Automatic annotation (TrEMBL):
Subcellular location as annotated: Cell membrane
Membrane topology: Multi-pass membrane protein
Name this protein carries in UniProt: FtsX-like permease family protein
Domain MacB-like periplasmic core: start-end pairs: 20-206, 471-601
Location of the ABC3 transporter permease C-terminal domain: 284-400, 674-787
Keyword Methyltransferase: no
GO cellular component, one term: plasma membrane
Keyword Membrane listed: yes
Domain of life: Bacteria
Pfam families according to UniProt: FtsX, MacB_PCD
């Protein structure tokens, strides 16, 4: 029976080649895109799940509450997890990561800067199941002066030979022995590194409760109720941290984050993870693309019902049950989907490298051979085949044989349903088009938003260590002899990444208060080099010696936070309130207020900050002209190597830091835009097929109209207006859905664009234009046909 169904299905597909091609093409696009999006979604859901103890590992998050501000941070104090392990027996293990950032290593004559270097407890390999290529995980970080590298880092230093037992020297002349080599950390990890150092000197700071700067992870028993441990955090705070923070009006609470939820549910300060919202969005897009392709099939199948009516009638007369007829039509739709899936698998194999480059993933085609993906592929066939064939099967199998064999069958049956499906198609397509437009508008807004300083053509060099002021002055003076170098200044950090908060004692309207501010250390030329504008007071000056220790500049956010009506002259002390048994700290005064500028990307609010003068800062900012940039950079490199022969010359442009901050959303935007365009293409394929069939059905009517004097333009309008009405009906459905979706999405951004009416108007006009472009070819072709050809048999 099944073989018979397949034979008939193949004959029908071959008989109507044009419509079969449209259906298969639409289904192929839908299935291909659906599979690619599902690969993306499953990759997002796989983060950190390869860890053997993934269900038992938790990260501790700090929630810091100041009198006027809240912060949620992924870091904690160094002693916290060790204390929890000692005080609460149900804590099975812990590990801490102390960030070093970028470190310069020497190996013989080789020198490299290596990113993502951390010091870690020796328990790290008991907690996390990283795979060792060389070395023993039990002893790898047990001894001071040990380092464990990833394969990529080890090959950089030691080539293809064994790295085990080799030595590396940091720039501060500390030697580390390589005690292990790991496989490169999988891409689907929320936390990656290139090297882990034994604690060494960091061990001395591991008992300090006043610094919040390390990443802490705990291992708890299986199926442990985390509320039990979270209920203990207040007593830990009162016992160990209360005496330090309570007098400052600061309260710290903690929460446990399951390891497997960090990537999709956590975007705290300083981290850029995925977003569960995008997983839902891309899953919905995959579903709608398959649905759109299925709608095409249903539309064309029901529209062509007149051609299948006699077949159904004859089968029923010959005794065929309705269930068998339904099975026949479902077999045809499933066969169509299987053909589309076959082509889709080939397309996925070809398109996967391009998809990876667009989406930032490293998905391999062999992933599709895993059992779960085979089940997904079968699910796609079943879902799409059933959805595509369900309505035609029910509709066509319901024909009464007496009616259709007498020739009294009305071919317009099911037209309301077809029209509803076309409206649904274009409502979905228009919704995605509007959303894509607003996503692009928001990203463009962030790229072009006024940051409060000039980031164009600003080259930055991170010295990564201390340098004598005399050497920097010598370098600065030499660089300024080049006419293409406009200004040179130094600061404690790149302008796009000001450091963590530091405690200051600041004069408020009710007296001195201890509060946290973002600090920045700059030299005399910094504000001028960066094009920052003072709104009150003055800049640091070489002519005023007191500026070196007794003067600070604040931003407008600080003035607003403190409620100062007259900020100039307000007192600022670096550190906590002076104690009777402690030496007095220098008391500085506010000499200027700088216009607010963004210390981080536009995902973060501008924070109150205090700018101090310091002559020796580790990041050099060089403002250069856009002309002859290669020669200018070569000149800077030459002068750098002559001044600092023991330091590598590595630079980046300041605007690159901001581009990196938006990279994840840029990637998602590209993916969403591509699939949005493809949904419109699928809808247009269905509309094209439906327009073709409609013109075929009305060819005699058109011939009569032309004989009676109708012009080509009037016939084109006649054939196009029905489809135009359907597209117009989709507007009031799509616009509210798109507006609400984008309004909700934009609330995640502190600085956002306005949605704007023109976006909806332009998207609607573009949709109409696409509709007309799709149907006008068939309309003109039908309108220009000689009426003699269509009426000669009448």
């Amino acid at each position: 029976m099944l073989l018979n169904y397949l034979k008939i299905a193949c004959r029908n597909l071959w008989k109507d080649k044009f419509y079969s091609l449209i259906n298969i093409l639409g289904l192929t696009i839908g299935v291909t895109c659906g599979m690619l999006l599902l690969l993306y979604v499953t990759d997002e859901l796989s983060y950190d799940r390869y860890q053997a103890k993934a269900s038992q590992i938790y990260r501790i998050v700090s929630h810091i509450t100041e009198p006027d501000k809240d912060h949620r941070m992924r870091s904690t104090q160094p002693p916290l997890v060790k204390t929890l392990k000692q005080d609460y027996p149900f804590v099975k293990n812990y590990v801490r990561f102390f960030p070093y950032g970028q470190v310069m290593f020497r190996q013989g004559e080789k020198r490299f800067y290596e990113d993502h270097i951390y010091a870690a407890d020796s328990t790290v390999f008991d907690v996390f199941s990283y795979k060792f290529v060389e070395g023993d995980p039990k002893t790898a970080l047990a001894q001071p002066g040990s380092v464990v590298l990833t394969q990529k880092a080890a090959q950089k230093f030691f080539g293809s030979g064994s790295a085990l037992g080799q030595s590396l020297q940091t720039n501060d002349t500390t030697f580390y022995k390589v005690t292990g080599v790991l496989e490169d950390i999988p891409k689907n990890s929320h936390f990656t590194f290139n090297g882990l150092l034994s604690l060494g000197s960091k061990e001395r700071r591991a008992s300090e409760w006043d610094g919040i700067y390390i990443y802490s992870y705990l291992v708890l028993p299986e199926n442990f109720d985390t509320k039990i441990l979270e209920s203990k955090f207040p007593e830990v705070y009162d016992k160990y941290m209360g005496p330090i923070f309570k007098r400052m009006g600061i309260k710290i609470s903690y929460e446990l984050q399951p390891l497997t939820s960090i990537h999709l549910y956590s975007n705290l300060e300083g981290e850029s993870n995925g977003n569960i919202g995008y997983v839902y969005t891309f899953s919905a897009v995959a579903f709608f693309m398959l649905l759109l392709a299925s709608i095409n099939y249903m539309n064309l199948a029901t529209a062509r019902s007149a051609k299948r009516a006699k077949e159904v009638g004859l089968r029923k007369v010959m005794g065929s049950a309705r269930s068998r007829l339904m099975a026949q039509f479902l077999t045809e739709s499933v066969l169509m989907t299987v053909l589309a899936l076959s082509v889709s698998l080939f397309l996925v194999m070809i398109l996967l490298p391009f998809f990876n480059s667009v989406s930032g993933k490293e998905i391999q085609f062999r992933e599709l051979l895993r059992p779960q993906y085979v089940l997904i592929a079968l699910g796609i066939v079943g879902f799409t085949g059933f959805i595509s064939g369900s309505y035609p099967a029910f509709y066509l199998s319901a024909f009464e044989p007496a009616t259709v064999l007498k020739g009294a069958f009305n071919a317009k049956g099911g037209s309301f349903f077809r029209k509803s499906l076309v409206v649904a198609q274009f409502a979905i397509s228009l919704t995605m088009l509007i959303c894509t437009w607003i996503v692009y508008k928001q990203l463009n807004f962030m790229r072009n938003h006024d940051l409060g300083y000039d980031q164009e053509q600003v080259l930055t060099i991170d010295y990564r260590g201390r340098q004598p002021r005399q050497q920097f002055n010598s370098l600065r003076n030499t660089l300024l002899t080049n006419p293409n170098i406009l200004d040179v200044a130094s600061a404690s950090a790149p302008t796009s990444h000001i450091g963590d908060r530091t405690l200051f004692t600041v004069e408020s309207n009710t007296g001195l208060k201890e509060m946290g501010f973002r600090p920045m250390r700059v030299d005399y030329d910094y504000l001028k080099t960066m094009g920052m504008r003072l709104v009150a007071g003055r800049d640091f000056s070489e002519k005023i010696p007191a500026d070196t220790l007794n003067s600070v500049i604040v931003n407008q956010a600080t003035v607003q936070r403190m409620g100062w009506k007259e900020p100039l002259g307000k007192k600022v002390i670096l550190g906590s309130l002076p104690q009777p048994d402690q030496p007095a700290q220098p008391v500085a005064q506010v000499i200027g207020v700088v216009k607010d500028f963004h210390q981080q990307s536009l995902y973060s609010l501008i924070e109150p900050m205090i700018i101090l003068y310091r002559p020796a800062n580790k990041v050099i900012h060089i403002k250069i002209r856009p002309r002859d940039m290669e020669k200018t950079i070569a000149f800077i490199g030459q002068q750098w190597r002559e001044t600092y022969p023991d330091r590598l010359f590595e630079y980046r442009f300041l605007d690159q830091d901001f581009e990196l901050a938006y990279e994840a959303d840029e990637i998602r935007s590209r993916v969403f835009t591509a699939f949005s365009a493809l949904t419109i293409l699928i809808a247009c394929l269905g509309l094209f097929g439906l327009a073709t069939f409609t013109t075929e059905q009305r060819v005699k009517e058109i011939g009569v109209r032309k004989v009676l004097g109708a012009s080509v333009s009037s016939v084109v309008v006649l054939l196009s207006k029905d489809f135009t009405k359907l597209v117009l009906f989709s507007f009031p459905i799509a616009i509210p859905i798109a507006w609400y979706s984008m309004y909700t999405w934009l609330q995640h951004f502190p600085y956002k664009t306005d949605i704007g009416v023109w976006v909806f108007v332009a998207a609607c006009l573009l949709t109409l234009l696409i509709c007309w472009t799709t149907v006008i070819y068939q309309s003109i072709k039908a309108a220009m046909t000689n009426p003699v050809k269509s009426l000669r048999k009448e």
